[in-house]
């Protein structure tokens, strides 16, 4: 059982240090007790042998014994004064033990030749008991005890040999040899059991510590979940409530201008809900450790141009000046997607919390780092809130009073994403006066391939008139809305909730579809990737777009399948569909050219 526990629990070097410390402490305590026992044994031995060998001879041995115990006492006091111990201290234990063994075994060759048989037997008994009792003091250092037993028993055997009683000396020597082997084995086993007990105690402490930490982590997770529910129950329901009210307003509108104005408000509110859920999803992935950045060379100018293009209409509608500037040829080591999301979060916050004035996005670099500044003239963040503003689900007092919807994740997600890219995020703010946030990342040398940040879809892109699309979505409301939008773009749509229904509706005799758009999680199955694979058995070159609320890694999605994560805006979806359809046409033309017969 002990060995099984030790195999399951890793014992680091600190456990070895604790073992050494505990063993030395035990030796110090036992040595002090052993001194008293040794004095009693020496007194008893003196009463036995002093009349036969003479007081002077016995006094000489007693003086040597005192020196031996004084040396060990000095070693014990030296060890007791030290707070920590090392291997050299354990060697001192061995040295003092060898010296003491010489003194303890010395009465045999000194006294036995002058003693009669009965006194020799009593002297031998006292010395053997003395050595056996030494196991209680030195047993934890079994190698030192091995030397102690070997020296002591060798001197006892020498005493019998010097007594010239060979008929007894030889059997006694063999008996002492056997006894020494038993005692050393006992000491070795005692040391092993002691070592295992110390390690098990340490392992238990480690396990208790890990359990305590796990309980604390669980409690923190519960507290975070409670904070989320407290925030989400209000902050998420607010824009949903606004959506329901706007739908009622839209039904009552009679003029095109009023319908257009209400529609814009609906679109803005829906975007707020989507941003909230996107922030929650990002935070969940970060908490789960599911975000693995792929660092590459990213051009900062293209990133800021993309952000400017997508936010300029929003700033213009709010009456804000958006100023974007970037030093030429700035390239950073970053994950293009994470950097884009982090900076967009910062710009989004700046626009949301700036009632009037301007928002500035500026990038510059030095020899080692590239810095991206997002500055606004908005409501600012109080000094007290700045310490907590990057914590998940925290919203400052100014943000709550502003009336802007949110769940307090924009800065938290941005800071964690920047940290995953070995960057830093610094914040300064005054209330009022605005906020300055600077993201700093490692600069990359110029002259190599640079990852492009995805560009938003242009509103002038043509509709998908005449395209034949297959749609697989098990949620009826989502499928109805998607089909309604696709038909509004001029598509011919065949939709179903699962693969079996889709195959039943699609007539193989009809013309091949141009693209399949499928959700990943379908009830009943199979999932979206399987649906795409099965459809490509019938139409091998069928372009495919996979949509899911889950996060799928690049290894899970084939290269020829475009993956979109919900929620998806209609401009983004339109851009992806157009891109995949154009790519499918290019591949088809290439196949026709490559398969055409050569002239002549």
TrEMBL record:
Annotated positions of the 4-aspartylphosphate modification: 519
Start and end residues of each Response regulatory domain: 468-581
TM annotation in the entry: 33-53, 59-80, 92-113, 119-138, 145-162
EC number: 2.7.13.3
GO molecular function: phosphorelay sensor kinase activity
Pfam families: HATPase_c, HisKA, Response_reg
Name assigned to this protein: histidine kinase
Originating species: Ideonella livida
């Amino acid at each position: 059982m002990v060995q099984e526990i030790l195999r399951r629990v890793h014992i680091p070097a600190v456990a070895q240090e604790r073992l050494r410390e505990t063993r030395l402490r035990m030796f110090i305590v036992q040595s002090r007790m052993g001194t008293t026992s040794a004095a009693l044994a020496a007194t008893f031995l003196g009463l036995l042998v002093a009349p036969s060998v003479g007081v002077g001879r016995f006094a000489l041995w007693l003086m040597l014994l005192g020196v031996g115990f004084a040396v060990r006492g000095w070693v014990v006091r030296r060890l007791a004064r030290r707070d920590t111990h090392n291997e050299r201290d354990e060697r001192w234990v061995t040295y003092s033990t060898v010296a003491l063994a010489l003194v303890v075994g010395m009465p045999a060759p000194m006294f036995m030749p002058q003693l009669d048989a009965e006194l020799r037997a009593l002297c031998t008994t006292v010395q053997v008991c003395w050595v056996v009792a030494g196991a209680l003091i030195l047993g934890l250092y079994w190698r030192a005890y091995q030397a102690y037993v070997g020296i002591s028993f060798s001197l006892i055997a020498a005493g019998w040999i010097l007594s010239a009683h060979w008929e007894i000396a030889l059997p006694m020597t063999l008996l002492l040899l056997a006894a020494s082997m038993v005692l050393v084995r006992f000491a070795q086993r005692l040391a092993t059991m002691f070592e295992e007990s110390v390690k098990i105690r340490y392992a238990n402490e480690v396990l208790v510590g890990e359990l305590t930490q796990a309980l604390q982590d669980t409690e923190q997770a519960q507290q975070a979940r409670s904070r989320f529910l407290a925030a989400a129950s209000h902050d998420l329901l607010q824009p949903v409530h606004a959506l329901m009210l706007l739908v009622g307003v839209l039904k009552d509108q009679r003029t095109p201008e009023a319908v257009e104005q209400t529609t814009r408000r609906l679109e803005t509110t829906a975007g707020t809900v989507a941003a909230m859920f996107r922030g929650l999803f990002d935070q969940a992935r970060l908490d789960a450790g599911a975000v693995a950045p792929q660092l590459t060379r990213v051009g900062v100018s293209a990133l800021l141009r993309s952000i400017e293009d997508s936010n300029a209409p929003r700033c213009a509608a709010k009456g804000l000046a958006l100023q974007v500037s970037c030093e030429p040829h700035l390239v950073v080591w970053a994950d293009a997607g994470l950097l884009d999301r982090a900076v967009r979060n910062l710009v989004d916050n700046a626009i949301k919390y700036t009632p009037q004035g301007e928002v500035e996005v500026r990038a510059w670099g030095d020899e080692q780092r590239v810095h991206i500044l997002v500055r606004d003239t908005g409501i600012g963040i109080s000094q007290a809130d700045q310490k907590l503003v990057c914590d998940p689900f925290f919203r400052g007092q100014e943000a709550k009073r502003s009336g802007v919807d949110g769940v307090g994740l924009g800065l938290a997600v941005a800071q964690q994403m920047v940290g995953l890219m070995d960057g830093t995020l610094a914040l300064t703010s005054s209330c009022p006066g605005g906020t300055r946030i600077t993201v700093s990342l490692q600069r990359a040398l110029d002259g190599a391939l640079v990852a492009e940040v995805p560009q938003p879809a242009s509103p002038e892109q043509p509709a998908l008139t005449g395209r034949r699309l297959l749609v697989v979505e098990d949620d009826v409301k989502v499928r109805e809305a998607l089909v309604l939008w696709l038909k509004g773009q001029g598509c011919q749509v065949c939709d179903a909730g699962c693969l079996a229904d889709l195959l039943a509706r699609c007539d193989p005799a009809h013309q091949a579809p141009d693209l399949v758009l499928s959700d990943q999680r379908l009830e009943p199955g199979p999932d979206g990737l399987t649906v795409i694979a099965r459809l490509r058995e019938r139409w091998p070159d069928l372009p495919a777009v996979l949509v899911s609320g889950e996060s799928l890694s690049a290894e899970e999605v084939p290269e020829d399948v475009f993956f979109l994560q919900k929620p998806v805006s209609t401009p983004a979806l339109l851009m992806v569909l157009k891109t995949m359809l154009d790519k499918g046409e290019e591949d088809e033309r290439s196949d026709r050219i490559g398969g055409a017969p050569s002239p002549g």
